[in-house]
Amino acid sequence: MLPFLLTRHSVVRKRSFARHLDLFLTTSYLRSRDGSIGHISQDEYCHFQPAAEELAAYLRSHQARSLSEPFAHGQTVQSLDTAIRQWRANNPSLEAELRAIHDQHHCITAEEFKQLVSPQKGELACEYCELTESDFRQLIQQGLVRTKRLSTRGSSFEFDCRDPEQGYTKNNVALCCYWCNNAKTDEFSAGEFKPVALALAAVWRQRLSTQSPGPQ
Ligand SMILES: [Zn+2]
Q: Which residues of the chain fall short of a pLDDT of 70?
């Protein structure tokens, strides 16, 4: 596999593990009697499936505006944060074992990832706005893109979780453009975002046809 693909995959896998472990430890905290994270077995992690209300609680903890917001067990988001930090400080070798399990069972594999970036219609396209690699190349070369950061980046494409709740699992990772990825965030599902992406596509096509990046 191309070195560039392996690097991109390892970045996705790393991000995926950080999120997944955090979700798992948050769930362990919620399931405990007193808000402490106790012993965790590898088997438990391997078969981990959060319930809908646990996922909702996890997202709530991430959206909390302050650590003093109430969370669970009559305690605050701060106490969840402390429990997770303590667990990680006390279990570095177990964390490494969980990472290996994650890479095997809870994340898109290198081979599946390769399929994602193997263009089926001749070239890569954003799954949401449907613009292609050559559309973006044209926009950038003709100075029709305002995002300055992009001129220093190798690719206009990124990887997004279609359904943010499911993480970077097989069939949930989408190839999408930098702008759709930024606009969609973790707030919207792929289905909810589609009409927004098609509206963005109309703007891109307008720029291509008028050769202007629009009014300043
Ligand atoms: Zn897009």
A: 1-2, 120-121, 150-155, 216
CB atoms within 10 A of CB 26: 26
- The domains of the chain, with CATH numbers, are 3-108 (no CATH), 119-210 (3.30.40.220)
Ligand 1 center to residue 156 CA distance, Å?
Answer: 9
Residue 175 Cα to ligand 1 middle (Å): 9
Q: How far is the CA of 196 from the centre of ligand 1 (A)?
A: 10
Measured CA distances, 82 to 9, 87, 119, 127 (Å): 30, 9, 45, 39
Burial of 176-198, coded b for 16+ CB within 10 Å and e otherwise, reads bbbbbbebbeeebebeebbeebe
Å from CA of 38 to ligand 1 middle: 43
CA 157 to ligand 1 centroid distance, Å: 8
- Give the mean pLDDT of the chain: 90
Q: What span, in angstroms and rounded, lies between the C-alpha atoms of 50 and 129?
A: 31
Number of other CB atoms surrounding residue 73 within 10 Å: 16
Q: How far is the CA of 52 from the centre of ligand 1 (A)?
A: 29
| Residue 126 CA, distance from chain mean position | 16
- The pLDDT tens digits for 48-98 are 999 999 999 998 998 899 999 999 999 999 999 999 999 999 999 999 999
Q: Are 67 and 76 in contact (CB under 8 A)?
A: yes
